[in-house]
């Protein structure tokens, strides 16, 4: 194993997170309780009665990606496992660009879901005839996130676990009520994929994949996890699979529940509240709205937690300023990286709000940018896996049978971001993200010219042992 991993001198609190707490990080980053309130209706707009199938296909695709990620997670337990594995196998430039992309992905996710928190906080307040200014709600959200992220990693994961689990159980209760009111009968239009086209499924698949991004974030916790070589891979795989099963069931119930409603499923802003009213359980709808609000909050916390661990690793390796690699002496959290991240995550949506951009638009813009970062990481790690195995003379046909479909699967939404050309301003977002990646590439080339030893140290830190964690 590497010197960096063995020392456990990272400064972060070692061996403090159990498997459920590790799982909470990945599940919190997915925010499965928030997706039925936002993403499933968008998928339905394209896939219609094939919405459940779209999520089934997405679950299989993300499971394949998780297997490629876990090849390294079983052998490395560092905050930068993914970008380090990419750099080791695809070159230092690819590794640094991957780390750069991960930072953007997690922080853009935090901005997006904080906007989701604002939207649903006002949905809840509206039930009592109240509304709050978005900037006030942004402030409340970021202060809560900062407190838990700064204070204690274990405290923050426990909070994520409790809030997300409660929200999921409430939504599952609604889904079961809807199915029960329909006599648990098979919904023939959905099962037979009535009026579903291949193009609709493809477009729906692009949107469905967006619902899973962040499932790999348990890998950023490194040695903070007890038995990391077992618990992190399990968290990565099972967070994707269990969230997928949840999406399949809830999407099926939502489509069924809206079958005879005057307003189409994809035309309502609060589908779970409407579904609760249709089912005659209005109070459950209010409770779910509160749960969705907290789901966005936990996703913001999970994103800040993951993003700051990547910043911490990049700072410790001196790829970014060394101050980012420092740890608070009492809390053992990367306090400088956390402070910088929460400031950025707060100031950007605040500035955009002052410019008149709505929270819903901010959610869409930054959710899209975040997805570009995740897709790049998933493609690169799925390529790095078989290369590592080939170098170790352990590559088998079944490894390629996992890696190749995973790469092709992730390329589908990437290509769809360019063709057909999306409407303004989404048509400019891919190019903005590419420009951001060019900065990462410039940073890498500068380091290789001026500080080649830093690159050598990074490669040594992420040396994979073929036996560790096996």
DSSP summary: helix tally: 18
Overall pLDDT level = 89
User: What is the gyration radius calculated from CA atoms?
Assistant: 21 Å
pLDDT below 50 for ≥5 consecutive residues: which ranges?
1-9
CATH topology: Amino acid/polyamine transporter I
CATH homology superfamily name: Amino acid/polyamine transporter I
Order of helices and strands: HHHHHHHHHHHHHHHHHH
Output the keywords.
18 helices, single chain, globular, disordered N terminus, 0% strand, mainly alpha, Amino acid/polyamine transporter I, 470 residues
Give an overview of the whole structure.
The chain is mainly alpha-helical. It has a single domain (about 15-460), classed as Amino acid/polyamine transporter I (Up-down Bundle). Helix content is about 70%, strand content about 0%. It contains 18 helices and no strands. It has helices at about 5, 20-30, 35-45, 50-75, 80-90, 90-125, 135-150, 155-180, 190, 200-210, 230-255, 270-280, 280-315, 335-355, 360-390, 395-415, 430-450, 450-460. α2 packs across α8, α4 (about 50-75) crosses α16 and α10 crosses α16 (about 395-415). The chain is globular, with a radius of gyration of 21 Å. The N and C termini lie close together (about 10 Å). The relative contact order is 0.20. Residues about 1-10 have low confidence and may be disordered. It holds the Pfam family AA_permease. Keywords: Membrane, Transmembrane, Transmembrane helix. It is found in: Membrane.
